[in-house]
Amino acid sequence: MVPRLTHDLTCAILLTMHKFEHKDHMSKALLKLGSRARQALEAIYRLGEASAHDLLNEVDDIPSYSAARSVLRQLLQKGLVERREEDFKYVYSPAISRQRFSKSALVHLLNTFFDGSPEKTMEALLDLSRTGELDIDLDRYEKLIQDAKKEGR
User: Fold this and answer.
1) Contact 81/95 with Cβ under 8 angstroms?
2) CATH number for the domain including 64?
3) Which of 15, 21, 35, 135 is at 20 to 30 A from 90, Cα to Cα?
4) Domain assignment of residue 106, given as a range
5) Residue 4: per-residue pLDDT
6) What's the whole-number mean pLDDT along residues 111-122?
7) Higher pLDDT, 45 or 21
């Protein structure tokens, strides 16, 4: 099964035809996230900020309040979230930009579902377009690819 992809993610796939380089600690930490931690971080981005209780309600893979706290502690130790106290509870927010996280998520998606192949990813996107599950403006993407070629990417 191919996850439903948004327009922005589609653009990112087209513009990420070269290998994503992991030069710093934060990028490596993002790539090494387990499924539960990745889902928790995705929920924090979606909500803007979240407490352990919020994650318990948002992430099906988190079975208990203590598991939610444990995942948040891991994300905090890796520097991926920031914590502040509010009304006798901790609230966590992303410590890195959505763009940076989306690049890591894109690499994870390519590696997990498409053997690291942008070509296989594009084939899947085009299949989704053919079945009507995703609206793709092929002329726009063709221009993006041509622009990337001109820039030497």
Assistant:
1) yes
2) 1.10.10.10
3) 35
4) 7-20+98-150
5) 42
6) 89
7) 45
